[in-house]
Amino acid sequence: MFKEKVIHFYDKNYKKLLILPMLLLVLSIAQIAYQVYSTGDFINKGTSLKGGSVISISTETDVAVIREFLDERFPGQGINVRSITDTGRQIGVTIDTPAQTDEEITPILAALRERVQFGDDDITVEITGSSLGSSFFRQTFTALIIAFILMSLVVFLYFRMFVPSIAVVLAGFSDLVETVAIFNLTGYELSTAGIAAFLMLIGYFVDANILLTSRVLKRREGTFLDRFKGAFTTGMTMITATFAAVIAALIFTNSPVVREIMVILSIGLVVDVINTWVQNAAILRIYLEKDSTHKDAHHSHGGHHE
Fold it and tell me: Containing domain of residue 180, as a range?
């Protein structure tokens, strides 16, 4: 019953609803532009991508107190303190710092020993050089761009129609841009694993959009709305199943890497619902209506001429 009400509302307002994804895309581009202006990067980079060190301590401590203490002791250095949790219970803390040499890390470790009780077995330090981090980011970002371009080519070769193909590519582009913008607002920092999550999202975006586009273009039975309903039911089943896995991982994981990946996937899934089932669907419907009107006018003109 609820699904029928949603589809009925969409049927009456699909052109007006196009404002939502367009506005979201404009705001996302504005956020990324501001991010570049204020930080020099379009996304919040983690230590593994910009260089620095990650200090992990496997003991319970007050994260807020440690954060405030380190900010006072090392002002302006951008030290980030996060808790490590396991099923909601804190089991440790990680400190991201810009320090890249033993000489730079030693004062931070000495300061931590003043406030946190830990043994040598309770602490690990991982160091990434700035050149290595920036080089890896360039390579993986290039891989992301190439993956998107190849996806676009496959879409054009499969459908061989300009407007539907552009609609799929636009939806994918919007998904990526909006996911980046919202990710920036969460305060998370992108690691190497996070880039893998964006590559995973490209595959998911393509699946959802090709499902919709194939159903409404290549099938002939029923009206557009009938074909849309079938695709929408399948698409929502896919999203619900994926969301269930993402939520379970967010609840039960104690890995910051897995949590980051799941946050990116959850953002991507939400924006994909808007860009696939509101934006792409509306563009396809307008395209088919205009194509039908053009064909009817052509046949009418041909009949009159005879």
Answer: 2-44+132-303
